[in-house]
């Protein structure tokens, strides 16, 4: 079982500061989110090696089209092909593609958007397979992404794509908003398709800052025999995507919540 975290939540732009903090808290691995147009792949790979942090995937936070006219199937595929190539260069074996949701035009119907996402995923899975790259699609809440918010929708995509290199991701915070039953969501995805489970409480902070029943979700993971990646995506109250960097007090709070959550996980961990 591997514990990982996600780079955007740290609010750190300097790679040395980022990897040092990941190491300090005690995580084994990192899902990197930095803009591939800004961070040279060779430098990211070098820092991961220096700090002995495994890169489990590339999750581009900057994943929206720059203008509405680019919201097309073709543009979305071209963008994510570049993302896949970058992931390969930094040595990450996985790319997240839930950002495909942003490449659908604002006026599209649900069915039109879903069909575009499915078609893009099909073509990208073929491209990724040729590079031995895994794709993951995460169900994010409806306040953050236009489409695909539930485990049921993830499974609909997977059934239409039918690719071995497409895996799915669930997060406790997102499920708390959009799932009627988070336990059923975990069970429906199952061990074979679930790439990672993300830890983030109901207010998006660390464990015990909200009301999510983690023992029950841990039991559900155990019941499906999940042995994959547990990814901590903790966001403190005053920090959010694109609000960088953290100040000293915010960073101290973030480290405190992250350390506590990791310790709490190990106490509740059903595989111990």
Automatic annotation (TrEMBL):
Xylose isomerase-like TIM barrel domain boundaries: 19-237
Pfam families (UniProt xref): AP_endonuc_2 (PF01261)
Keywords: Isomerase
GO molecular function annotation: isomerase activity
Transmembrane segment boundaries: none
Superkingdom of origin organism: Bacteria
The protein's name: Sugar phosphate isomerase/epimerase
Organism, as annotated: Algoriphagus zhangzhouensis
């Amino acid at each position: 079982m591997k514990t990982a975290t996600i780079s955007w939540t740290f609010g750190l732009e300097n790679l040395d500061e980022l990897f040092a903090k990941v190491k300090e808290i005690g995580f084994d691995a990192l899902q990197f989110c930095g803009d591939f147009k800004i961070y040279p792949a060779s430098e990211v790979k070098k820092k991961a090696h220096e700090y002995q942090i495994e890169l489990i995937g590339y999750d581009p936070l900057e994943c929206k089209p720059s203008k509405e006219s680019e919201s097309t199937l073709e543009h979305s595929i071209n963008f994510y092909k570049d993302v896949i190539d970058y992931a390969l260069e930094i040595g990450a074996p996985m790319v997240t593609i839930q950002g495909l949701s942003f490449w659908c035009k604002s006026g599209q119907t649900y069915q039109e958007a879903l069909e575009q996402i499915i078609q893009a995923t099909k073509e990208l899975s073929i491209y990724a397979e040729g590079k031995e790259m895994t794709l993951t699609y995460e169900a994010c809440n409806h306040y953050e992404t236009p489409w695909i918010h539930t485990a049921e929708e993830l499974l609909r995509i997977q059934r239409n794509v039918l690719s071995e290199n497409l895996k799915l991701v669930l997060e406790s915070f997102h499920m708390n908003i959009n799932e009627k039953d988070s336990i059923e969501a975990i069970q429906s995805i199952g061990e074979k398709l679930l790439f990672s489970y993300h830890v983030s409480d109901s207010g998006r902070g660390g464990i015990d800052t909200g009301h999510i029943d983690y023992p029950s979700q841990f039991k559900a993971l155990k019941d499906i025999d999940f042995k994959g990646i547990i990814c901590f995506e903790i966001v403190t109250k005053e920090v959010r995507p694109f609000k960088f960097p953290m100040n000293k007090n915010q960073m101290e709070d973030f480290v405190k919540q992250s350390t506590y959550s990791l310790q709490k996980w190990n106490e509740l961990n059903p595989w111990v």
